[in-house]
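Title: Prediction job returns without error message
Component: structure pipeline
Severity: low
Priority: P3
Assignee: unassigned

Description:
Job completed but the reporter wants confirmation the result is attached to the right record. Sequence as submitted:
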Amino acid sequence: MVELTIDGKQVSVPEGSMVMHAAQELGLYVPHFCYHKKLSIAANCRMCLVEVEKNRKAVPACATPVAEGMVVHTTSPMAVAAQKAVMEFLLINHPLDCPICDQGGECQLQDLAVGYGHSESHYHEEKRVVFHKSMGPLVSAEEMARCIHCTRCVRFGKEIGGIQEIGMINRGEHSEITTFVGKAVKSELSGNMIDVCPVGALTSKPFRYAARTWELARRRTISPHDSVGTNVIAQLKNNKILRVVPFENEDVNECWISDRDRWSYEGLYADRVTQPMIKNDDGVWREASWEEALTEAAKGLQKVHDSEGAGQIGALSAEYATLEEMRLLGRLVRGLGSEHIDSRLRLSDTAFDEALAGVPWLGMPIVDLNNQDTILVVGSQDLRREHPLFAQRLRQAAKAGTRVILLDSTGADALIPQAQRLTVAPSQFAATLAQLNEALQQETQDDNLAKVVSSLKAEGKIAILMGNAVVNHVQASNIIAHAQQLAKSLNATYGYLTSGANTVGAYVAGAVPQNGGMNYAKMLNNPLKGFVVLHAETLDMANTPAALEMLNQAYSVAITPYKTDAFHWADVILPVGPSTETSGTFINAEGRAQSFKGVAANVGDSRPAWKVLRVLGNLLKLADFDDESSESIRDEVLAQGFTSRLNNEVRVSPSTTSPQTDKLERVSDVPIYRNDPIVRRAEALQQASVPAFVAINQATIEKLSLTAGSAVRIKTPSATVELPLIEDNHLADNVVRIPNGFPETAVLGCINSQLTVESV
């Protein structure tokens, strides 16, 4: 430790720290622009100049290492004069457009100009003009003359996002921040550039000129789009969300959020159903009162119960339903005498639940991802887009020395320095894990396997994490059995990168089958006569055509914010609010329960889903439907001590795996902006989304006599579609990548269906 004195106060900091770090340790603020605690030190702006005794000139606090006995003054006449001089230089070319700037009111430059700026400039020359840049549909760079060249955005892209999409060109006063060769910024974390920008050079394009910052109410909530449990602040005007920004939580999302978390709010107000609706016998929809619609739904479910039996009623829930909503949905279906309920709607393995001994979870706190020595990620087909913030943590860990190994089918660039990578067909996940386990015991002739085993055998903490493609695989139980066997051989932590905001919560709340109930995959094979569907749409379900037929043939009650999908299969639609319009709780991948209040007013005549389920239970005369608040439901669930149920133990033994074949195999990852009903309706995110496509590697393209860049015809037993063909040589041989979540690709049905690809 090094001892020094700052403004008369003594402080001890680790050797190698900068004066800025020591000042922060004391709680002293040193004015700055380019310094950011999560980014490398650039010392561009010079705003943090301070006086160090025995130094003739002021020095930048962010780039001056501490020394034993150093005496620093941050507010001495020399320091303040230097800081004011820098501020005057920064304002020479800065436009005086604060009244129209979206950053106005929360601008670091404005704040510091009050304390360190002059009332009048010494410079009367014309200010320079910087032409606006196009950075895509999300980030606005329309006023780049405001830029003060702090390079925070450049460093963020390179160091946190993992890809340098913007940089600085030219020199001196001609310097400009711009994208490379005019391309749009496509990083899934690009919105954080707006947050780190200390001026109004980079702003949110969807929010542009929508409101002044002082008009916005700020309310804390939790993002529903992935399993991190990202903490965010929703900013509202007239009870409508207009902007979402991060809320710092070092243990969860640090100070970052993904673009999906930031701009999905647009989807909260599109395609909403504002009144309860009932489908007449002639198939025509009509609006109804809440009393009539709830009574109709209760009568329909009771009729199925009485005529077909309790075992013919099922419930399906999206993974972003709250803990409270899932609990009441479970009470409802079990109160009717059925155990058929599931929230894992992309599940394909009918035996998956028999393989689980408890609630699958990450297996460690999220912050421990940064502290592993070796991490093997199995079956995450596009890690940085499925789990943007998990990928960001793994990226930082890899830069610090963690060996990251990926086993997948797509070879998608995770922007993570990798020790090794194995890209195999989906059918070979289990076989590859078995080969790794064998190679631990005896030497292998396969160089790739040998390199992976060498990394796994290295000393230190090891983690093996299952991605979404494993859980959704038709052989999921066998794959996780092989993965557990490998984890035990290595004494490694074993866990899951769970897919949804409340995947862990679904197990805790009982929104998965128990006591012999059918999971989603079994229900698809044995269609029921009645369904209650909470928040989910058929695009969220494996084998969408079969799911649509199953719901169409049954009496189906849709409890949903959105109308378009439910119009095709529901008999009654009960409009409810998404998580922003209700109080609730999510349990993230690490088992952290995070509760939140509703931050926005309900749209139209919609209601919180837990209230709708409570009244529906009352109308069906079921027990335990007397809760007056969501908090009482939450407390009842959490009082059972769910953390003791977090258990990744697998109860089945690994079985022999099938050899590699030449049969075409489909990989169906879900693109980042297609993974739930909210993001699919967010206009700006859809503009940034990649349209549906087919991707095959060169060897397979040649074998099938196809031409990259042309349209191809995809045939399965359920449908035929035409899509553009992309050559992707990262893919495994005989693998056809067709993303899910699109209406065009969903019609192809089961991902394990026989598949043919031919020229149009």
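Comment from assignee: result matches the submitted record. The radius of gyration is 28 Å.
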